[in-house]
Structures are given as structure tokens and as C-alpha cells.
Amino acid sequence: MGVSLKNEMIVTSLLNSMLEPAMVVDQDGHKAAVNRAWIEAFQRNEFPWKASGDKGGAFDDQLNAVLLGKQCVYEEEWVWTIQEERYRIRMSPIHHHEGFIMGALIQCTNISQQKEMEQAYQIAEERLSKITENSFEIIKITDFHGNVAYSSPSHQKILGYEHEETSIFEAIHPEDKQHIEEVYRKVRETGESCMIEVRKKHRNGRWVWLAASFNPIVHSNDTSTHILVISRDISERKKIEQELQYMAYHDALTGLYNRRRFTELMESSCAEAAANQAKVALIMMDLDKFKSINDTYGHAAGDELLKQFAKRLLECRRDGDVVGRISGDEFAVLLKVQSQEEVKTFIQAFYEVLEDTEIVLNEHTLKVKSSAGYAMYPDHGNNLSKLFKHADMELYKEKRRRHAKHWIAKGSRLRESSRRWRDLMCK
């Protein structure tokens, strides 16, 4: 250093320029000088660790090693039992310009608060680890762009595989990706939490429904750079909801839309047609002589006949057509058309399908026939009530026409048979 360590005034002046507690010892290990920070910290100018028993002995061993020429900085953590504070001690040899060791510089850094924070963080980390390991929820931490910084082990339990995701958007259903992007934008811009339902792909390929909450992680300075995402599996709930919705909108026997749902779809189709100056057709149809078949072969056979009829009707359905069972043996079809000819073509095609169909009921083979009537929106009415009424009237007109045609044909056959009988008798 170019000065003697015995010149305490010069050495102390240099030490006082240091903010941390510091002491200089001579080659014999005796104190040469201490700075003001040392006095303020330890309320003494001696070695406070002497009261620490074994700690003091270990310190002396390390100091002696430094004074003997150990070319390194010694670093150790000490606990002062009197003040219950923790310090990190750094010791390094002080070399004379001629090369010999003049003494050692001892610097102390108070790490009590740091250690308390480390311990608190370790305890919190251990608690979080226990929670996440046993959680039935997926816990993730991402940045504002969706890059995953942490993912809990429950990822494997819920989605079937250990997957170190790099992005929250991985394996998301295509229809839900934009929804999550909007959530991230909202959380980033407003700092508000959001909850949505999304689908994520399981290892076996099926889609798992998740209820996910997105919560900004706010720091002490009110800034936020990351989002805590907590997701739970709601697949079973969604399955029940879908089943209930299906039951609410579909006929239990045929699987077709029920009257309630058919009416809702018809209302929306008519509103769309009104906005676009388009046309919509409502076809009403039923089974000829259904009551007689039901009475003759039983209700189970009647139910089977209704299911087979619905099946044939679905086979004739075009893309965009809506088919429903209104009540009993009464069915309805909703078509988006441009003319009445399209409606008549549909009805005729369905009649031909029935003509080529034989249904076996209780070992009896039956030919099923149907009658149909239709109404056009807006030609025959501008509301559902008028359309249903007009289609019903046309249905019964068709029934009477087909019934009359049947008896006319039967009468012709009888007259022909009678003529042949007379001719035979006259020979």
C-alpha cells in the first residue's frame, strides 16, 4: 500500500470512504484500524464474533490462512448471537509493493434481510410446490405474450402427458385460439382478470374442456409483466350440459328437432329471408293410416315406423334443410328455396323414396305412404301462425285428393272386374 499499517489515521481515512463495515488487521492478526460503519454496526471496534464460540475459532483459522499468503478472497456467512444479525465476511490479503503480506482487509455485509427473504421465498416455494403437486388444477405462469415460464405437474394428470409448453396457445382448439388472444390483450391493457372456457387437446387426441382464469401478477411497484393462469377440467359438466341441451331441442324417439327448436329455427330463417328478400318453404307431412297401423301392430311397431319414416326423411334432406317432428306422426321440413317448383320437387322425391321402401313390422311387410302440404314465406303468410295454418290446410287437401284418387282407382278396378265377369257369363 506504500504506507505502514501502524499509521492508523491514514488507514482509517481510507476505510471511512467505504460504506460497509471494514477492518484492517496487521500481519499478526491484530486490529490496525476500523471504519465508522464498523462501529455503527457492531457498537465496538473489536471482533464481535469472538462471542460466537466455534464460529470465532473457524474465523481465526481462515484469517491465519489469508495472512500466510492464501491468494484468494475468503467468503463466509456468520451469525452474531448478540445482535442476531447475519453477515457475510470477505477477507483478502494486503500486499506490500515489495511482495510481502502486510495484513488483511476484512469487509462485512449485512445479509440478515436477504436471508429472511430467501427463507420466506423458500418456504413459499415449498408450499407452492406441495399445492401444485397435489392440485387438480393446471397452474401456469406466462408473460403477456403467452410464453410459459412455469407449468404445474397437474398438467400430466389432466391432459395425459408431461409437456414442457413454450406457449399457452399450444394444443388449443382452433375455434378457441382467438378467444384466448383477446383475453391476453384485455389483461395486458386493463390489468383486469378474465375467465373463459376453452378446449385443449389430450394426449389421446380428445378435446378437454377447461375453465381458465387469467390473473395479472402485480408487483409492489404496481407493474405487471406476467399472468397467472389457473385451469380446471370441466369436461364432465360440459358433457351434461350438451346432453341436456340435446334433450331440450330434440325428439327422444326420432332424434329430429322437436317442435320448440323447429319453431325457433323457423323464426330465425323467416327473419333472415325478410332481410334478404328471400323465400322460405314450410312442408308439413304425416303418415297415411298411421292410427290403423298403430292399432293393428301395437305401439312398439308404431314407434319403429316413426323412426324409419324419420330416417327416410333425413335421407332426402339437402344441406341447410331443417327437419323436425312436430307431434305424433306429424313432421315438418324447412327449406330455403327460390320457387315453389323446388318444394314440389322435394316432396315428389320423398314420395318416391317411400314408394321404394318396405318396412317389416312384426313379420309383416308394409308399404308406407305419406301426404304433404306446404306454405311459402312470404307468399302464404308473414308469420309462423299463418304459415303453419296454410301448410296444414294444404296437407289435408292433399290427403283428400289422394283418398279420392284411391277410391276412384278402386272403383275403376271394380267396374273393370264386373265387366269381365259379365263378358265371361255371356260366353
Automatic annotation (TrEMBL):
SMART domains: GGDEF (SM00267), PAC (SM00086). SUPFAM superfamilies: Nucleotide cyclase, PYP-like sensor domain (PAS domain). Its EC number is 2.7.7.65. Pfam families: GGDEF (PF00990), PAS_3 (PF08447). Signal peptide: none annotated. Gene3D superfamilies: 3.30.70.270, PAS domain (3.30.450.20). Residues 278-413 form the GGDEF domain. Keywords: Nucleotidyltransferase, Transferase. InterPro entries: Biofilm_reg_signaling (IPR052155), GGDEF_dom (IPR000160), Nucleotide_cyclase (IPR029787), PAC (IPR001610), PAS (IPR000014), PAS-assoc_C (IPR000700), PAS-like_dom_sf (IPR035965), PAS_fold_3 (IPR013655). One of its GO terms (molecular function) is diguanylate cyclase activity. Residues 194-246 form the PAC domain. This is Diguanylate cyclase domain-containing protein.
